[in-house]
Amino acid sequence: MARININGQTVEVDADGATPLLWVLREYLDLTGTKFGCGVGECGACTVHVNGEAVRSCVVPLESVSESDAVVSIEGLSQDGTHPIQKAWLELDVPQCGYCQPGMIMAASALLAKNPTPTDKEIDEQVTNICRCGTYNRVRAGIHRAAGEKA
Amino acid sequence: MTTTLNLTRRGFMVIGGAVGLTLGMRIPLDGRDSAHASPGYPEEINAWVVVKPDETVVIRIARSEMGQGTLTGLAQLVAEELDCDWSNVTTEYPTPATNLERGRIWKSFSTGGSRGIRESHQYVREGGAAAREMLIEAAASAWGVPKGECSAKKGVITHAASGQTTTYGKVAGAAAKLAVPEDVKLKDPKDWTIAGKPLKRLDTAEKLTGKQIYGADLKLPGMLNAAIKQCPVFGGKVKSFDADAVKSMPGVKKVVAVEDYAVAVVADKWWQAKTALDALPIEWDEGENADVSSASIAEFLNEGLSAKEAFIGNKVGDADAAIAKAAKKIEAVYSYPYQNHATMEPMNATAKWTEDRCEVWCPTQNGEAALAACAEAAGLPPQQCEVYKLHLGGGFGRRGAFHDYVRQAVLIAQNFPGTPVKLLWTREEDMTQGRYHPVTHCKLTAGLDADGNMVAFRVRISGQSILAGAMPQRLKDGADPITFQCYAPKGDHSISYSFPDLLVDHAMRNPHVPPGFWRGVNANHNTIYTECFLDEVAHATGKDPLEFRLALMENYPKNQAVLKAVAERAGWGKPAAEGVHRGLAQCTAFGSHIAACAEVSVTGGKLKIHRIVAATDSGYAVNPQQIEAQVEGSFVYGLSAMLYGACTVKQGRIEQTNFDSYVVMRMAEMPKVETIVMPSGGFWGGVGEPTIAVAAPAVLNALFAATGKRIRSLPLSKHDLSS
How far apart are the first and last CA of chain A? Predict the structure, then answer.
């Protein structure tokens, strides 16, 4: 029985240690906001925060996460969708199909936490998630808007 | 009533709400077959509109939302005619079986070809207008005044003479009992206050918090999970598999053959099913296609470029004769590769089967087609089946004509009567079991007169027919009419140039790789062929590419208008920034007129796309800011395809298995996009797809301007721009 800290709560999970964190969240904790896109860490749909770092949870085995690691999923980013990134996303109507957006939001919020006013180049380097609908320009505008609010 | 008891248990699935709890939450409906909803469906004003006592307005949306914004746009059209308060509007999907039971009262559920709005605007607006009339009539009747003396605005009904007012919510119950009026008058679009406005989408909030449930996220009580492997060579079969090798692995319930071409593992958790499937020894009978390669396909298509037999798509005069006697001839051969839709959400469906009923929960672009697939797989009449649609994590054409994943889910669920089973494909299955953008080669020939005017145009397309592979019943005497998108004599995909002599024909060559409708469909490659080739001719004759095009477009003033608009906004004819070069493209596709101007530079062999200016004339613009979003997104889709998009074939199978080998554009490569929405009125064009067609050629023409290199085969990543 593994113990992990997810969204501020410590929970026990009866899953094989090789199970990727993504599938622990989705299948054992019913936190399906974190999406399955590729399974190989390429697309970023499964991005969560581990100790504040944006991490692609599909390639993180459960056994590599300890109880002292703070894992935050999209469900734990804010109480009610009021993180500055979420607010900016709402104001700019960023999502289209929306499937990649939890991962995109987690990547963007991790960036802003470390770098409150990122340049376009820094955004390019840090937010490399795939969106097939093509929301990139609104994602970029949303990050700048949220950065402005924080500053 | 001839239906069984089961059939009266129809309902609507309400999308949204708390995670995992809302699915299957249904408003029970009586199975009465009246097209006039009211008596049998007491909760609704008519099929399109429900008004609740708390003033909530529920607008029924038959088409699917997959990111393109149709849900919001259709709601705007209904709300406009209903004259309700937009802030009270919510939406729901009627179910396909309810549609069947009610005589297709919502008509088509198909969501493809950029037709969601342009095909249904008339009857959804009539639905809104009829509901408005009924609500006013109910109020007038209660007041004992003529309904003609009453008016409605933002959900409030007023009888001016007596000063009485009431609200939609208060009279909804009475209105629901009235007959639905047959003839209603629709508003002039110039009077719109909800439609035509850049309103926010209705479906955003839950997409920001993880609450939006997609098919892949569905969890039903007692549900099992399935992973599947299909023969990697299309047309191949399973020779054998060793279920004993994995049956004791954690969570595994059963290893099942799915028809003769696939094997699935069913387990408590999907990760367990996938892990066991990876460990399962499977032998394939790869069949007759096991030696096919990209090279053999190219050879097959190349032969078609000079074949005698071909289907004619557009013919004016005698192009071959005109070219034979032309002062000068210019010829080029282009080609376009296979591409995967690569929706972010892999294919999936959840099915619950019993001997007398089968239910499916799935992302689908066509609920009715999903229902048909469910019924066929279940061996039940569609009346004993139901499909609950979920928002799609991308569609792009993969989930409209093809419901292979629904069929598989039902066949797997038949092993567990009464237990829901969710089938989820891995990305590797999704990449290698697609319905691919068709491959074509194209030879284009221009005949020029002594003054360098292009007087004849000959286009020979050789390659794959989507209809032949996907819906052969729609072929016309063997020919595939949609092959000629953007070359057609008239209509939604009309050619937008005039030539005294023109011939466009298609030598159909169908490799074994299954083709599909891929966002933009045949407009994508056909527009690359035309727009890049005409650019070649313009340069070869020393003409300005804008002026050269405009001179051939005199019969297409709306196309001229969008092309001029982008040229002007981009500064065509004026110097660009140091090292920056421009390229143009235009077309008519999906009923809209589209143009783009790209600005690029090439440094050290590396292309940078700086800026795109795009114009869209869709006739009417139901939500201008959503059109902008679709135009921006179309450049991502179209430029991803141009830069990297290629599925290559080796030993009969697709070589690219995930996003590491099937590369798509990311944010760092995304240019600025300036969108000009210029609706000229009088027609309804689509917006989800047409812009994709101009994305690649505008950039490729700019690339030529920058480097002198003419790219005639894609993707660009296989070309060296450094020398």
Answer: 43
